[in-house]
């Protein structure tokens, strides 16, 4: 892991990045990425999963990483800054970044061994958009690897993260995308979409993510958004207040991640 941290040139305390990278390496291992593979990653963000994929494919492989966001999106490090740092690292030659790129209009005739969507589905505008992505994937790969937060929380200590996610989704539904989370998909919904797109589910598993910082981050953000939800219709106010109170637990762990692998 140290050499990947060095590739990302983290300034100051790298504890957060090490924790995040540990999880991404676990996901990529679950995906079964092999040396020499050509991988398309959709929704690459600042490249946490991208570097893990690049490590797995080795010098003989290639990762094409795309994201619909602009290079100046993100904080405290923007997508463009992160991509530049990674591209200048020893693994940079294995990665090609494309920002401001919608997969539905991504023009390529290249065939990929795997298409990866890792923790990006909640940013889709609607289920129809995600389904259209799955349909297009059939034209360029025979294998899809998908990971997202698992709303079927196993421990009571994960309920606060669950509630924070729902509060953010409610906020987005009434006030737009500032809440970041637009649609919260359950594992069964993703499976159904993949099967309707004529993929066959070949592997499912749950990956421990309780140690990640994401739960605390999401809870803090949901608390910021909560006052605005008190201006919504009364039934939504009541629901938001219920989630808000349930979120106030002493122990607040992150949700786990679920992984689905599907083949044509």
Mean residue pLDDT: 93
- Find the structural class using helix and strand composition: alpha/beta
The order of strands across the largest sheet is 3-2-1-4-5-7-6
Which term fits the overall shape? globular
**What about the largest sheet?**
7 strands, mixed
Low-confidence stretches: none
The assigned CATH architecture is 3-Layer(aba) Sandwich
Task: Give the class-level CATH name.
Answer: Alpha Beta
Give me the strand/helix succession: HHEHEHEEHEHHEHHE
Domain count: the total is: 1
- Proportion of helical residues: 40-55%
CATH homology superfamily name: Vaccinia Virus protein VP39
Q: Predict the CATH topology.
A: Rossmann fold
Q: What's the N-to-C terminus distance?
A: 33 Å
The radius of gyration is 18 Å
Number of strands: 7
Name the quaternary structure: single chain
| Total DSSP helices | 9
Strand content: 15-25%
Fold and architecture overview:
This protein is α/β, with parallel strands linked by helices. It has a single domain, classed as Vaccinia Virus protein VP39 (Rossmann fold, 3-Layer(aba) Sandwich), CATH 3.40.50.150. It is 42% helix and 16% strand. The protein has helices at residues 2-8, 15-31, 48-57, 79-87, 127-137, 159-175, 187-196, 214-229, 234-246; strands spanning 38-42, 62-66, 95-98, 114-118, 143-149, 200-207, 257-263. Helix 4 links the parallel strand 2 and strand 3 (95-98). Helix 6 crosses helix 8 and helix 8 packs antiparallel against helix 9. The longest helix is centred in the first third of the chain and has 17 residues, at 15-31. The model has no long low-confidence stretch (mean pLDDT 93).
